[in-house]
Specification:
Layout (H helix, E strand, L loop, with lengths): L22 H13 L6 H7 L2 H34 L1 H4 L1 H23 L1 H9 L14 H16 L1 H13 L6 H39 L1
Length: 213
């Protein structure tokens, strides 16, 4: 029997020619179907698998995901606001900030109390004799001092050499003996150098002979 000729309330469909006596039977069938004793008809299965039903299900799922994303976005905003206002809303953070400010205040107060001593220490490099240089020549002075630093480091040695040359006398005949000793020393060094070169050549020849043999 085709149940589509009857309404859900069991009344006869005015557009159908079915007998009104079947209305109680329709009520019984509706109850049985709601209780699950009667399987859905083929038309109901087609309706459940139709594109419109699938679209509605997809829209529901999309709405659910959008609500979840909105909730996540709301949680992120709350966390950001909590981070931005933590200095005011969090008691532990406020206490830490107060301690830091108190420590800074104490440090500044100690600087104020020792102002005269600090001023003396800051002015100490300018106390005494120093070279006065115009501002336009500061760059040249900064380039000059690194260059003359090695000369100033060896200044003592140079002064000793100058003093030795000044005290040296060429009239007492010592210079001739010194030059003679220097000449003999250079000749000995030359002879030793020649012997070393000859020894090196001999060692190279012996090594070459050993390789061939």
């Amino acid at each position: 029997m085709d149940l589509r000729n009857f309404s859900k309330s069991g009344e006869l469909n005015p557009w159908s020619d079915a007998d009104s006596a079947l209305s109680p039977l329709l009520n019984v069938l509706n109850i049985v179907e709601k209780l699950g004793y009667v399987q859905k008809t083929k038309d109901d299965k087609i309706k459940s698998s139709s594109p419109s039903i699938a679209l509605i299900a997809l829209l529901k799922e999309t709405s659910k995901i959008q609500r979840e994303l909105h909730q996540v976005d709301l949680d992120n905003q709350r966390r950001m606001q909590d981070k931005e206002t933590s200095d005011i809303t969090h008691l532990a953070v406020r206490e830490k900030r107060i301690k830091d400010i108190q420590s800074l205040n104490g440090h500044m107060q100690s600087i104020i109390d020792s102002k005269s001593q600090l001023k003396t220490r800051l002015q100490q490099p300018f106390v005494g004799d120093f070279v006065k240089i115009e501002a336009q020549y500061h760059r040249y002075a900064a380039e000059l001092f690194p260059q003359i630093a090695p000369i100033l480091a060896d200044l003592t040695t140079h002064l000793e050499n100058i003093a030795w040359v000044k005290s040296l006398s060429f009239s007492d005949g010592k210079m001739d003996s010194l030059l003679s000793d220097l000449n003999n020393t250079l000749a000995g060094l030359q002879t030793t150098f020649q012997l070393l070169c000859q020894m090196r050549n001999n060692m190279a020849q012996f090594h070459h002979i050993d390789i061939k043999s």
